[in-house]
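We close this part of the discussion by returning to an individual protein. The encoding preserves chain order, so positions in sequence and tokens coincide. The sequence in question and its structure tokens are set out directly beneath this paragraph:

===
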Amino acid sequence: MKIPVVVEKVKGKDMVYQARSGEPLAASAEGPTPDEALRKLREVLTERIYAGTWLEELDIPAAEDPMKRIIGMYEDVDDETWEDFQRVIAENRKKDDEDLGIR
């Protein structure tokens, strides 16, 4: 398994580097060199895994798009106002396209 790790010099400490990982395996370790800090971090994480920590993936269904409930709700409406509304939209789109030079 490969995980991203940050390695950086510790401020205010000479010759001390810190290696740390983020969630879900958050841990950190320090050493006099970047390699030593990484080695120690690897040991810490390995100990956690051997102690019974493991990672799982869950398949969570996506939430339904709330707009789906209203899409098409006026398709079957037999209403002159609705037809006028659709006509005005079409006219405005045509005018906007002409203004933008779109055919």
In short: The mean pLDDT is 89. The helical segments are 34-50, 80-100. Residues 12 and 96 are 62 Å apart (CA to CA). The longest strand covers residues 5-9.
